[in-house]
Amino acid sequence: MGSVIVVAGPASVHLSRRVASALGLEAVEVQHRFFPDGESYLRLECDVSGKTAVLFQGTHPPQDVHALQLLMLSRTLRERGASEVIAVVPYLAYARQDREFLRGEVVSLRQLLGLMADSGVGTLVTVNPHSPWALEREDMRSVAVDVTAEVARGAARFHGRFDLVASPGKKGERMARAAGEAIGAQWTSLTSSRDPVTGRVEVIVPEARVEGRRVLLIDDIVSTGGTMVEAVRALRSLGASEVVVACVHGLFVGDAARRIVESGASAVHSTDTVTSEHSRISVAGALTEALRPMTA
Ligand code: R5P
User: Fold this and answer.
1) Which of 101, 146, 151, 210 is the most exposed place for a label (fewest CB within 10 A)?
2) Shared domain check, 192 and 126
3) What is the tally of structural domains in the chain?
């Protein structure tokens, strides 16, 4: 492989610096500002000709701005002669619209991935996408980095031993098991469903001993917080002595984190795929290890 350059997109400067330094690679920043009308101004002064460009650019809110910056940067890198673009997108926007739930809906994830491939992204590296299977396509390779174990270990570092790990939704069983195994706790998945029209969430705790136990409640995304609020309430009403909430991607729309605490959680933690006051667990190590073989 020729030389490798890390390009720090405006959405992911902090993570790109940490990972580049761990990999011993040069990291260049993209000059960025907004025009008075809100359009992005981007300037890339480095020479990328013949190099593999590892472009860091998350697509967390404002999703559309960050996604368009990602597409424009990737195209520019290819136009300037980069031999390959590896896009590191710690939080992948639109990942939950991975199919047509209601007739006529745009499958936004598929469209976004298509735009990335068309913009010259050869490999997409992302963290805990909602449905890893939905990333598979012929025109772009995808690598889904799973940080469930890191999140569980991070929560245990702050709070000590948990008796039970619980996780809601379809991927709840996989996440709860991975987290439980990582910290030596029992695990259970919670049934959750969301009305596609009203958005109302219902959470059911299955046959699991909850009373008097310290529970780590883990999920891939906290967006409005509706799922976690219902899950915390259900676990507390069954007698859990403590519920700590941890997620990979903490979007915390509006006052989501406060509502989760008010529903009975003692703490809320997330990773730095989306930075907030709750980002106490870093994905830098996991991204470094995922990128090492691609950049060696
Ligand atoms: C759903 O399948 C996801 O794993 C999350 O549970 C969900 O997206 C969280 O959204 P909200 O915080 O809005 O309930």
Assistant:
1) 101
2) no
3) 2
Atom 1 of ligand 1 has which residue's CA nearest to it? Answer: 169
Ligand 1 close to Cβ of residue 168 (< 6 A):
yes
The mean per-residue pLDDT over the stretch 176-198 comes to 92
Would residue 288 count as lying in a domain? no
Question: Closest Cα partner for 230 from 199, 260, 189?
Answer: 260
| Mean of the per-residue pLDDT values of the chain | 95
Reply yes or no on whether the pLDDT at 1 is more than 60. no
- For residues 244 and 155, the answer to whether their CB atoms sit within 8 Å is yes
Q: Which residue lies with its CA nearest to atom 2 of ligand 1?
A: 169
Q: Compute, in angstroms, the gap from residue 201 CA to the centroid of ligand 1.
A: 9
Ligand 1 center to residue 219 CA distance, Å?
Answer: 8
Question: Residues 103, 158: one domain?
Answer: no
Average pLDDT over residues 152-165: 97
- End-of-domain residue from the set 145, 179, 200: 145
Whether 201 lines ligand 1, by a CB cut-off of 6 Å, is: yes
Distance of CA 18 from the midpoint of ligand 1 (Å) = 28
Q: Which of 193, 220, 229, 247 to mutate to test the pocket of ligand 1 (most atoms within 8 A of CB)?
A: 220
How far, in Å, from the CA of 53 to the mean position of ligand 1? 33
Lowest mean pLDDT among 180-184, 194-198, 233-237: 194-198
Whether 286 is in a domain gets the answer no
* CA–centroid distance, residue 75 to ligand 1 (Å): 32
